[in-house]
Structure prediction request, 344 residues.
Amino acid sequence: MTDAVQPQYKGPQRVFSGMQPTNGLHLGNYLGALQKFVRLQDQYECIYCIVDLHAITIGPDPQNLANRCREVAAAYVAAGVDPKRSTIFIQSAVREHTELAWIFNCVARMGWVERMTQFKDKAGKDAQRSSVGLFDYPVLQAADILLYKATHVPVGEDQKQHLELSRDIAQKFNNDHDAPNFFPLPEPLIQGPGARIMSLRDGSKKMSKSDPSDMTRINLTDDADAIMSKIKKATTDPLPVPENKEGLAGRAEVENLVGIFAAVTERRVEDVLAEFGGKGFGVFKPALAETLAAKLSPIAAEMRRLTADTATLDAILRDGAEKARAVAQPIMAEVREVVGLWSA
Ligand code: TRP
Prediction:
């Protein structure tokens, strides 16, 4: 277990993470998030959220939003998040997320939020036309985490800055209210390999569902044939697999494939290179594709089964929301008291 983030913080060690409700989950989501969520259950109390309120910051989708949430819930369960041990729930089902976000809006400084690079990327050239919600997105994220006094947050590299903001908000709240250890300062958990899964065609771009070419990614629902053909056509170079990590320098696509193999088999990159170093991609690629198919096909089958069984999924999500509220509501009551809001 990682060291306590503040030696003086005496609350429980708790993991919180969230995923956007998106259909079209891919290998990057699996290795970067789901597989880690599953493993963390052995070490921590874990709370996993589907962030529908974050999703509406980029536009409405009332017809599909609930089903997109169900699909991610199905992926959590299919990948091995156990709803009995961990909490799986939909953000908007626990109203305290928005309540705490408002309080944090009054803690966070304009300058802090204006620095967030993800907003600049998502808003593009015409930031004036983006929603206020998109600007405020990282403050809601801080509320997600701190509503549960979570100490550890498994996220991708791209969320590091948002985690820093969460820590700044926690720290300022604690200072302003003279409550030094009220909130923990949550730590990101960003471990490789698998921390960053890149496009199969361009090792400088992240694997993404928005890439126009489906050949750049492995979808969680791809069958063994699709996986084989995508991996065989993945960009490499004429050299064999290198014998050591130094040999990966300047070979981003090769590094990505080796990283995927290591992550999916939960081995070290060095060990994968020890096995395949000196061999050609004619050997490595089929081995990788078969390993991936063996890992993903039971998950895809379980996702299909669960998404067809809305009643079961909704029961899991109702139960999850209840468990989440049982943690969140007492913390929110404490926050209200610390802030000095009226209660009778
Ligand atoms: N912003 C995160 C992402 O896009 C999703 C998210 C929302 C999240 N709230 C969170 C992640 C809280 C961790 C903790 O990946």
In short: Strands lie at 14-19, 45-50, 87-90, 152-154, 187-189. The pocket of tryptophan is lined by residues 16-18, 20, 51, 54, 141, 144-145, 153, 155, 159 (CB under 6 Å). Residues 264 and 292 are 7 Å apart (CA to CA). The chain has two domains: 14-189+309-339, 214-305.
